[in-house]
Specification:
single chain, mainly beta, six-stranded antiparallel beta sheet, five-stranded mixed beta sheet, 11 strands, globular
Length: 153
């Protein structure tokens, strides 16, 4: 028997590489508001139309907890797996303290990632902080929530 290396065996070089799957996410085209509202049920459209001034709402339009609604009516709204979060999303893809929605004095809203393991996304782009507009899709773990502001804002 011959103990020498086979001719096709690598020469000790590491041939592995890392692929970051987040870079492969498809980036959706901006959707017209009519299309976003058409995905809501009649009841959800009525509820969204009643959101008070200086408040907002997140609605799960697709994915786990479809139909869940979360009213945002304070200066900071916490999002996380911790049951004490104002928006509690119970799944291992969500950090205990994942993100927060911050209301500005001018009535604007933004999402801020709080160092979560899987990141926070707005319209399929990973963000540390991002202003929010009606129809923006926020992804926290496997949850996809659509943002709506009160009509009087």
């Amino acid at each position: 028997m011959n103990d020498s290396k086979a001719p096709d065996e690598p020469s000790g070089r590491d041939l592995t590489s890392t692929i970051h799957l987040s870079a492969l996410r498809s980036v959706p085209k901006p959707r017209p508001l009519e299309e976003i509202y058409s995905q809501l049920s009649t009841e959800e459209r009525e509820i969204v139309s009643q959101v008070p001034k200086n408040s907002a709402m997140l609605i799960v339009i697709a994915g786990p907890n479809k139909g869940a609604r979360f009213l945002i009516n304070s200066d900071e709204t916490s999002i996380g797996r911790d049951p004490r979060s104002e928006i509690s999303l119970d799944d291992v893809t969500v950090s205990r303290v994942h993100a927060k929605i911050v209301r500005g004095q001018d009535g604007s809203f933004k999402v801020v990632d709080l160092g979560s393991l899987n990141g926070s996304y707005v319209n399929a782009h990973q963000v540390q902080e991002s202003a929010l507009a009606i129809g923006d899709e926020i992804q926290i773990g496997k949850f996809r929530l659509t943002f709506f502001k009160g009509r009087a804002n």
